[in-house]
Amino acid sequence: MDEEFIRNRITELRLKKGVSEYQMSMDLGQNKNYVQAISSGRALPSMKQFLNICEYMEITPFQFFDAQENNPQLIKKALDGMRKLSDDDLIMLIGLIGRLNSES
């Protein structure tokens, strides 16, 4: 894991969220060029700001570093919704996922 991964991952997640560098900087309570400085390699977030970025992206730090997870925000929302399902609904959902995976 290196600085380039962190910069690229922040950019990837920001684009998936559909916000500009400027908007994200403002939403995080930073100066208007904060995210641009990270993206360009001039700065890295502190640990506190990294955790704020994860919260802003609605992901866990683990999901941030899991490069195989293409859209962690959607995965988190799906998991949050699944936690509210009954056992019968979960079984039905697992069956649906199995059918969808066998079709692709």
Order of helices and strands: HHHHHHH
Distance linking N and C termini: 32 Å
Tally of alpha and pi helices? 7
- Let me know the largest β-sheet: none
Shape designation:
elongated
Structural class: mainly alpha
Q: What ranges have pLDDT less than 50 throughout 5 or more consecutive residues?
A: none
What portion of the residues fall into strands of 2 or more residues?
A: under 5%
Quaternary organisation = single chain
Total number of β-strand segments? 0
Average pLDDT rating: 90
Helix content: 55-70%
Radius of gyration (Å):
17 Å
Give the key terms:
104 residues, mainly alpha, elongated
Structure in words:
The structure is a single chain. With 104 residues, the protein is mostly helical. It has helices at 3-17, 21-27, 34-39, 47-57, 61-65, 72-82, 87-103. It is elongated, with a radius of gyration of 17 Å.
Topology:
Layout: H1 3-17, H2 21-27, H3 34-39, H4 47-57, H5 61-65, H6 72-82, H7 87-103
Summarize the structure.
This protein has seven helices and no strands. It has 104 residues and is mostly helical.
